[in-house]
Amino acid sequence: MKSFSSKEIRFSGNLIKSCVCFIDLVDSTKNTITMDNLEHIRIYYSKFINSVSKIVKSYGGKVIKNIGDCLLAYFPKTSDNKSEEVFREAIECSFQIIDVRYIINQELSKQHLPPFSYRITLDYGVLDLALVGEYNLIDLFGSTINICSKINSSISITNQIIVGENFYRILKSFSNIANTYNFINNGECKITETFGYSTYSIKKVNKLLIDESTTMNPPLRKKLLGSSIEDFIETKSKKESSFHKKSNNKKRIILIDDEQDILFIYESFLKNDGYEIISFINPSDALNYIKDLTSFDNLLVTLDIRMKNLNGFQLHQQIKAIDPTIKIIFITALDILDELISIVPGISKEQIMRKPVDKKIFTNTVKNLLR
């Protein structure tokens, strides 16, 4: 039987979709470097880790690990991206971390320790689940984690909640969330030299903004500063509303080709199989349509390689950046099967079809990919 070292990482092979959250303690290095007392440093960091972990847990989230002065958490229930309630919980959890900061800072002040400020970022996407060590502790990897971390380190807006484009797209699809929160475009975060990713700040509609530098409503200040973290969590949790949205699990196909006659043929092949089908002549229109989707489950896209504006390779790259689980079929008049397999990561032979397309092969391939 193979033995593992206590810190060995083993990828489970399971991919999950979920909301992830980075909570970064701002200026902690600057604050602690002047502390001569080691016990004060321990109190400072343990107060951060324990208070945030307690709040995340109360909203159904899990803190996975701390990375220096930053905590990584995720919300397993958001794997159901049709449930408005669980996404609201993730947002409210983040707001509560910021609100409870006033209670914690009062406690820190009594011990002559500097106050907490946070950078909180959330995003949504595919996560690669791994197990660490002999106790099988959960760890998460993947581009969603990397992008969320990049946003957190690049955007210096403290004590506000910043969300990535994928998470924003889902939130805006829920009418109650759209009416409860304001979303402010912060522009693009530069992920790579060629790839920018839109980010948004969230603020509550008509929310009384609390700030130490302004005059706070005296009864509210007394209520906040006179409460324990546990009391605050319980009070806030009782006020949370539940939202539900009907699920639609229908299998969907997006057909993209710059020849209308070709699209008509593909549609005729599939029209009696119960799929939800939409066709695009313009690949840019198709990409914008995909960006506006709130769910990518049971979704397949067929791409012609030689198209104007965006060719099939470029379109494939941008679709996979939106959600890597979207299934793709390349259709081409060129005999380039081996070249495609070598240059397109994760593509298999059955996902490459030559024109003219055989109806039986086409429909069977679609069925196999969407089963």
Outline:
The protein has 371 residues and is an alpha/beta fold. It has helices at residues 28-32, 38-58, 84-110, 143-154, 165-172, 175-180, 218-225, 229-238, 260-270, 283-291, 312-322, 337-343, 359-370; strands at 9-25, 62-67, 70-75, 118-132, 137-141, 161-164, 181-190, 196-204, 252-256, 276-280, 299-304, 327-332, 352-354.
Protein described:
This protein has 371 residues and is an alpha/beta fold. The protein folds into two domains: 9-238, Nucleotide cyclase, GGDEF domain (Alpha-Beta Plaits), CATH 3.30.70.1230; 252-370, 3-Layer(aba) Sandwich (Rossmann fold). Helices cover 40% and strands 26% of the residues. The chain has helices spanning 28-32, 38-58, 84-110, 143-154, 165-172, 175-180, 218-225, 229-238, 260-270, 283-291, 312-322, 337-343, 359-370; strands at 9-25, 62-67, 70-75, 118-132, 137-141, 161-164, 181-190, 196-204, 252-256, 276-280, 299-304, 327-332, 352-354. The strands form two sheets. Strands 1, 2, 3, 4, 5, 6, 7 and 8 form an eight-stranded mixed sheet that branches. Helix 11 links the parallel strand 11 and strand 12. Helix 2 (38-58) packs antiparallel against helix 3 (84-110), helix 3 (84-110) packs antiparallel against helix 8 and helix 10 (283-291) packs parallel to helix 11 (312-322). The longest helix has 27 residues, at 84-110. The radius of gyration is 24 Å and the shape is elongated. The two termini are 36 Å apart. 27% of the residues are buried. Residues 1-6, 208-226 and 236-247 have low confidence and may be disordered.
